[in-house]
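Researcher: Structure prediction, please.
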Amino acid sequence: MQKYGCTYTKDIYLTTSTKRNRMPSLAVRVLLNHTEGKRDRPRETSATSLHRIPMAISMTSYPKIFHSHFECRSDPEFSSSPRPEKAGTGRFAACASSIHVGATSHGLSSLIYRFPPNFVRQLNTKARRNCSNIGVAQVVAASWSNNTAAARVPSPAAANAVDAAAAAATATAESVPVTPLEELQAGTDLPVVDNFESSQDVQLKDLDLKEASFLSFDGSLAIHAGERLGRGIVTDAITTPIVNTSAYFFKKTSELIDFKEKRRASFEYGRYGNPTTVVAEEKISALEGAESTLIMASGMCASTVMLMALVPAGGHMVTTTDCYRKTRIFIEAILPKMGITATVIDPADMKGLESALEKHKVSLFFTESPTNPFLRCVDIKLVSDLCHRKGALVCIDGTFATPLNQKALALGADLILHSATKFIGGHNDVLAGCISGPLNLISEIRNLHHILGGALNSNAAYLIIRGMKTLHLRVQQQNSTAQRMAELLEAHPKVNRVYYPGLSSHPEHQVAKQQMTGFGGVVSFEVDGDLMKTIKFVDSLKIPYIAPSFGGCESIVDQPAIMSYWDLSQSERAKYGILDNLVRFSFGVEDFEDLKVDILQALETI
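Model: Predicted structure follows.
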């Protein structure tokens, strides 16, 4: 039968061998009857009848155990040097001390094990993919079959590799008590090997996904964190695979109980986690310097779950006047239904914050920095000091800043939140949100998230991982373009005002200089004109798309009075500072000169 790149049919008995400082391998004995190079049907024995199960095996073998009609796929060459493994961490480490190879390599006098039906999951996943890419002379036992179709003869190179592997295995073999074949045929019970463990298990056991000391800069972390030193997916691929599954299984009930009683790390249900998603979370944690990260289906999902998890019913919170409108709606219209009240202050009003902390038992201070759309900046260190004295938590939405331009946790904030849809994803093709911080707080938020849902699917997680690999390159370009364009717009006679933290005219420019290394890729400005003139300017632009969102490779422009506040009257919009001539411009990674020419020609139309 042809499966996993190998062709063979016969009865297989398994023994095991160990090598010093190496994960034990499995050796296969293939019992074959043949007549002048042609296969007969396999002998039926009591042992055989017990073992008609599909399985995949990574192993080191013995000389002269391959029948002439057995062949492994030969695309990659056999290697005489197996890949190094950490001692004691392999899938077979748990039983290494009790499993040895028989001293004889040709007879049947060796310990024989019966493997359970789910053994295929316990064996090395790499061996199932390619029977020759892990160690020397590996064999994939693809399936039990009575198929008698002819198979090709193995190459001399493969046979030599097998002989070399066998010699090495025999040299280190130790004698062990054996179960004679006669007893097996008489029906003697066979010991069952069913407690294999491994760091390569998809269940993430013993995996260390933290970044290494050789990854010192954000650009390197954005590329390699969560991946370079190992991930919860067994693969030789450079890119992280997409694990599309809604649930995960346990090999036996005892493993499930161990998981439930927190003695075993594992995935369980798709809403609670996914190996691909974990890589994205680890990458974001590394950039933020966070102990833990939770990624969700959108930025608003992250904001709302965080607020409900950390502000108790009847509690009080503080936020700022300038913020994303949907966040304000949730705080003003939804949270009061839970008895939660809020104090709203100007981003620079520290006296107002102190007053709220004195009057109320504040659970949380939550704001954006920079804010949307006026790019106001709060003094994160000062705010954190004031709130922590009164026992209040601080969560900063750093979407406009990105983890590269601002490290809110290092400045004293308890939590940092992002709409990963924006700069982190960076390609205008995925929705996601994330929260990073200490494990105890993230776990509290995660518990509510598991109830409410809003899980990020693995395909979206892959797009986030992909996007982050160019994050530092994109943000550098966007920082530079936005700074130069803000200076150009501020000097232009047809622009009344520019909002950008990198300008000395910005009210929090000094704060931004202290806590940011770059000022972001978004510039807001007011043109010299009314609603219709502003519409004419926007419509005259040729490069940017008229769309919501920001932070992608493509430039995007919008008129907040229309895009976000059109349901309100002009006077109601003015209460939030949203004038008809306000424009928010998100600069992509296009060349600065092209964007400059486009904006200048559009301004000339008004």
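Model: The longest helix spans residues 471-490.
Researcher: Thanks, that helps.
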